């Protein structure tokens, strides 16, 4: 990616122009960062209290028994949103879906074990071990560059 800044005193406000052959995930990430949208808030309930969960604190978000939960170092929170709604609120370069029922924070992964045939075993920062479903293995490998 090329980056160019031109100083022109005739411009009162900054103007950003993106020249690209097609819309890519990188272009979408740049557009999201430049837009005036505030970060999407995720709230969860724990001990009959609603708390705002910081995106950086999220380790994994998963569905179980028809409910959606968020795991953090502070504990587990029940969420009212569906998994796909949460996925839309999270930055795609940091959070990745590994199965139909789970999203992980790539920054909270201790290691990936590729020794399993057809899947990937993931050890998360809180000690949880989870697996990538076969459907999402190629997507994760592409993200990891392997």
Describe this structure in words.
The protein has 146 residues and is an alpha+beta fold. The protein is built from 3 helices and 10 strands; from the N terminus they run H-E-E-E-E-E-H-E-E-E-E-E-H. The longest helix has 11 residues.
SSE inventory with pairings:
Elements (H helix, E strand, L loop, with lengths): L24 H10 L7 E5 L2 E5 L4 E7 L2 E6 L2 E5 L3 H7 L5 E5 L2 E4 L3 E5 L6 E5 L4 E4 L1 H11 L2
Antiparallel strand pairs: 1-2, 1-5, 3-4, 3-7, 4-5, 6-7, 8-9, 9-10
Tell me the CATH architecture: Beta Barrel
Rg over alpha carbons: 19 Å
CATH classification, class level: Mainly Beta
- Report the biggest beta sheet as strand number plus sense, adding barrel if it closes: 7 strands, antiparallel
Count of extended strands: 10
- Estimate the strand proportion: 25-35%
Span of the ends, CA to CA = 21 Å
Structural class: alpha+beta
Order of helices and strands: HEEEEEHEEEEEH
Number of domains: 1
Shape: globular
Number of helices: 3
CATH superfamily grouping:
LytTr DNA-binding domain
Mean pLDDT: 89
CATH topology: OB fold (Dihydrolipoamide Acetyltransferase, E2P)
The neighbouring-strand order within the major sheet is 2-1-5-4-3-7-6
Helical percentage: 10-25%
The parts where pLDDT drops under 50 for at least 5 residues are none
């Amino acid at each position: 990616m090329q980056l160019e800044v031109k100083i022109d005193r005739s411009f009162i406000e900054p103007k950003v122009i993106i020249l690209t052959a097609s819309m890519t995930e990188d272009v979408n990430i740049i557009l999201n960062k430049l837009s005036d949208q505030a970060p999407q808030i995720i709230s969860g309930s724990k001990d009959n209290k609603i708390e705002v969960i910081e995106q950086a604190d999220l380790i994994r978000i998963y569905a179980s028994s028809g409910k959606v939960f968020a795991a953090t170092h502070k504990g587990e929170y029940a969420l009212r949103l569906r998994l796909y709604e949460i996925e839309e609120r999270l930055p795609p370069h940091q959070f990745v879906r590994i199965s139909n029922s789970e999203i992980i924070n790539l920054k909270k992964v201790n290691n990936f074990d590729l020794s399993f045939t057809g899947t990937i075993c993931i050890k998360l920062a809180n000690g949880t071990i989870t697996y990538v479903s076969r459907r999402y293995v190629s997507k994760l490998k592409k993200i990891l560059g392997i």
